[in-house]
Amino acid sequence: MQNKGKDTAFLGLCVALALGLAYIEVLMPPLLAAVPGIKMGLPNIILIFLLYRRGVASAATVSLLRIVLVTLLFGNTMAFLYSLAGGVLSMAVMVLLKKLNFLSVTGVSVAGGVTHNAGQILMAMWLMNTAELGYYLIVLAVTGTIAGLLIGLCGALLIRRIPNRW
Amino acid sequence: MEHIDKTRLRRNDVIFIAALLAVVAIAGACLYFLRGEGNTVTVTVDGEVYATYSLAVDRVEDIHTGKDGLNRLVIKDGKAWVETASCPDGICAAHKPIHREGESIVCLPNKVVITVSTADSGNQPDIVV
């Protein structure tokens, strides 16, 4: 049995870890100069782990805290809205697919990666009133798939290897 | 009920990812081929707009950048391409002529980007935030 204090401390640790991973991403050079803003989404490894180990509530809490804190540390208001749209949409889709239970961790993560990008673009299209941004969706769907695949494989590995008491 | 290890990649995952990529590829191909002809090219140097030319008018423009950077832009028959460039790799000069909306030629050494767009007659599009 887990107790509440221990749970809270553990989630705090996860937020810190997610922030650390986000910071590493800020430091890394852009993966593709042609399309700015493409990131691996390293912190999502933590979210995948939490979603499967601790459930939706824990994963969503850490996701939200991470978005707020990353914005305060490295971002701006626009980035916050994009992240929020991506985070909420991808979390919703991942929870749904997890419930449907026909994909493994990696498949769910790929869906999360793609819908995260889709959420950001939809928010951008709405904020800037430019439907042309939809073109980006094609590129971002591919990069989202690749990122989601790598993140999912890492997440699955963690879920398998980290002892169940965590 | 049979226990399934969710951390192992399943056949469903592979099918899902393949289907996803197939949809994206089809959508991308449709967008590419349905993409309209552009009517202007915009040249940016190091992120700043350098000039905008109409694709309807044939012309040759030398784009000078930095100390001795040079890209010779040719516009002919509604298409734009780079004829010669000072950069060592010459990727931009090897690029096929562009004319569809959104197509671009990039010269990284000279930081030159040439993009086809469709300018509405008259004003710049408004950006509403």
Outline:
Chain A has about 170 residues and is mainly α.
Helix content range of chain B? 10-25%
Order of helices and strands of chain A: HHHHHH
List low-pLDDT spans of chain A: none
User: Could you say what the CATH topology of chain A is called?
Assistant: Arp2/3 complex 21 kDa subunit ARPC3
* Number of strand elements of chain A: 0
CATH architecture field of chain A: Orthogonal Bundle
In the CATH scheme, what's the topology name of the domain at 40-117 in chain B?
Answer: mini-chromosome maintenance (MCM) complex, domain 2
Unreliable runs of chain B: 122-129
Number of helices of chain B: 2
CATH class of chain A: Mainly Alpha
- Number of discrete domains of chain A: 1
Cα radius of gyration of chain A in angstroms: 16 Å
Could you describe the 3D structure shown?
The complex is a heterodimer of chains A (166) and B (129). With 166 residues, chain A is mainly alpha-helical. In chain A, 78% of the residues lie in helices and 0% in strands. Chain A has one domain: Arp2/3 complex 21 kDa subunit ARPC3. In chain A, helix 1 crosses helix 3 (56-74), helix 2 (44-53) crosses helix 6 (134-161) and helix 4 packs antiparallel against helix 5 (105-128). The longest helix of chain A is centred in the C-terminal third of the chain and has 28 residues, at 134-161. Chain B is of the alpha+beta class. Chain B has a domain at 40-117: N-utilization substance G protein NusG, insert domain (mini-chromosome maintenance (MCM) complex, domain 2, Sandwich). In chain B, the strands form two sheets. In chain B, strands 2-1-7-6 form a four-stranded antiparallel β-sheet, with no helix packed on it. The termini of chain B are far apart. Classes of the chains: A mainly alpha (166), B alpha+beta (129). Chain A binds chain B through residues 33-34, 52, 101-107, 110-111, 114, 127-130, 132, 135, 138, 141-142, 145, 149, 153, 156-157, 159-160, and chain B through 4-10, 12-13, 16-17, 20-21, 24, 27-28, 31, 102, 106, 108, 125, 127-129.
